[in-house]
UniProtKB/TrEMBL annotation:
It comes from Porticoccus litoralis. It catalyses: Exolytic cleavage of the (1->4)-beta-glycosidic linkage between N-acetylmuramic acid (MurNAc) and N-acetylglucosamine (GlcNAc) residues in peptidoglycan, from either the reducing or the non-reducing ends of the peptidoglycan chains, with concomitant formation of a 1,6-anhydrobond in the MurNAc residue. One of its GO terms (molecular function) is peptidoglycan lytic transglycosylase activity. The active site is at 316. Residues 270-486 are annotated as: LT domain. This is Membrane-bound lytic murein transglycosylase F. GO terms for biological process: cell wall macromolecule catabolic process; cell wall organization; peptidoglycan catabolic process. The keyword Lyase applies.
Length: 486
């Protein structure tokens, strides 16, 4: 009995000691600060600070967009949280927000320069850009740094461009430039295009995307070698969120999704001639104002983007309401006589009737696209059918499906439309031969025009804002430590 008592006492002590240790362990665990990754998951929100721009982040009638936005959104989805974006007005504003309440990190097309690495930690690089000097077409092209000395050179404040110029100034003491707060690279392209400044420095990806919008702005020479673009994280804190970002970026790259995203961003203006872009911009200024309110009224009536309707009309008639083709199609939307009768249009040369009839015909075409196909593919496929006919579009979708690709995705279907010109393909489908390259070009052109119109509207607004600003301060003598790059 006594032995049992001592055994029970010993067991009780063990239980008490175990409970005490467990309580202490739980207390220590509970008191431990969450890691950066745990904090993001606990709040259910990934906070990203970015910069407005065509290659970073923007808002339009369709919502939010931009390379950095889409990439960050994919990362947030990977983590199982929502994305919250805070856009800053300047590079400096982005940098000071990193690690604060607005931004767990910055996704703003930032170059991972040696100077910036002293203050921030950077993710795995997902892009490379070169710094390009641009000049206005018609002026003498600068070919080296010395050629910039006699002109007005404009750069974004506290950018990698100004940092690079500070380095070059050691070898070229006469080199000078100017900086203005609140500018984006899109603004610089615009100012060179309009002759407001002689030269500017922009990143190669921005030039690639925006050169069709500002055809007078031409590339002169590269100011730098390719430089890595990465997400910027604060120096303080642990590595958990950075490690998660690196793992995601490497996986996103290996899967091919990163390449697709780059193609999506850069495909808008890659293949447009300088002359075609200049003509379009000229007609935006001279012809579009006559019809803009009509496009807006009809778009509102049918719940569409007016810039899409304007883009279709430009592709059809170059905004000439009296246009007539040898085949008998007429008017702003180039309607055939049977289509006009079907839509109840009695005067194809009347701009308002033409826009209304063309819009209703497009909507009717889109309604015939299978209901499980979502936007934006639904619109792109409808435009292709609007051009080549629904039967030929379905034939191309059949060829797409046979190949094992997705017949509901425009990016896949457009590869097979041109094959309808080859007998070994069109002989195997219902509707036979078609000039399949034409709807591919048709959709590409309309997407390009719509994109340019969106950026032109934004540029108009920004131009008004620029006109209200003070004189540009001369910043060529700023000390090197203040040059925190883009």
């Amino acid at each position: 009995m006594l032995g049992f008592y001592f055994h029970l006492k010993k067991t009780t002590k063990r239980i008490l000691y175990g409970s005490l240790l467990f309580t202490v362990a739980m207390t220590l665990t509970a008191s431990r600060a969450p890691t950066a990754l745990e904090e993001v998951r606990n709040r259910g929100e990934l906070r990203v600070v970015t910069l407005m721009g065509s290659t970073t982040y923007f808002k339009n009638a369709k919502g939010q967009g931009g390379f950095e936005y889409w990439l960050s959104k994919a990362f947030a989805k990977h983590l199982g949280v929502e994305l919250k974006v805070s856009a800053r007005d300047s590079v400096a504003g982005v940098l000071v927000s990193i690690g604060g309440p607005l931004g767990d990190f910055a996704a703003a097309g930032l170059t991972a320069t040696p100077e910036r690495k002293k203050r921030f930690r950077f993710s795995y690089p997902y892009y490379e850009v070169s710094q390009k000097v641009i000049y206005r077409n018609g002026n003498k092209r600068p070919r080296k740094v010395e050629d910039l000395v006699d002109g007005e050179l404009l750069v974004i404040p506290k950018s990698s461009h100004s940092e690079r110029l500070q380095e070059l100034k050691k070898d070229y003491p006469e080199l000078h430039w100017q900086e203005m707060d609140g500018l984006e690279m899109l603004d610089l392209m615009s100012m060179v295009d309009s002759g407001e400044t002689d030269y500017a420095v922009v990143d190669s990806n921005s030039y690639q995307v925006d050169r069709g919008i500002y055809p007078q702005a031409r590339a002169a020479f590269n100011l730098s070698e390719p430089q890595p673009i990465a997400w910027a994280f604060p120096k303080h804190g642990d590595q958990t969120l950075i490690d998660a970002a690196n793992a995601f970026l490497k996986e996103f790259e290996a899967s091919g999704e990163l390449a697709k995203l780059k193609a999506k961003v850069l495909s808008q203006t890659n293949q447009f001639t300088q002359g075609g872009s200049q003509l379009f911009i000229s007609r935006v200024k001279t012809r579009l104002p006559k019809y803009r309110e009509m496009f807006q009224e009809i778009a509102t009536r049918y719940g569409l983007d007016w810039q899409l309707l304007a883009a279709i009309a430009y592709q059809e008639s170059h905004w000439n309401h009296k246009a007539t083709s040898p085949t008998g199609v007429r008017g702003l939307m180039m309607l055939t006589l049977p289509t006009a009768k079907e839509m109840g249009i009695n005067n194809r040369l009347d701009p308002m009737q033409s826009i209304d009839g063309g819009t209703r015909y497009f909507l009717e075409t889109r309604s015939r696209i299978p209901s499980d196909i979502t936007e934006p593919d639904r619109t792109w496929l409808a435009l292709a059918a609007y051009n080549v006919g629904m039967g030929h579009l379905e034939d191309a979708r059949v060829l797409t499906d046979r190949s094992g690709k997705n017949p509901d995705l425009w990016e896949d279907v457009r590869e097979f439309l041109p094959l309808l010109q080859q007998k070994k393909y069109y002989s195997t489908v219902k509707h036979g031969y078609a000039r399949g390259h034409e709807p591919v070009a048709y959709v590409k052109n309309i997407r390009h025009y719509q994109s340019v119109l969106g950026w032109h509207s934004l540029e108009e607004q920004r131009r008004q804002e620029r006109n209200q600003r003070l004189d540009i301060p001369n910043a060529s003598d700023w000390h090197e430590g203040s040059m925190l790059s883009l």
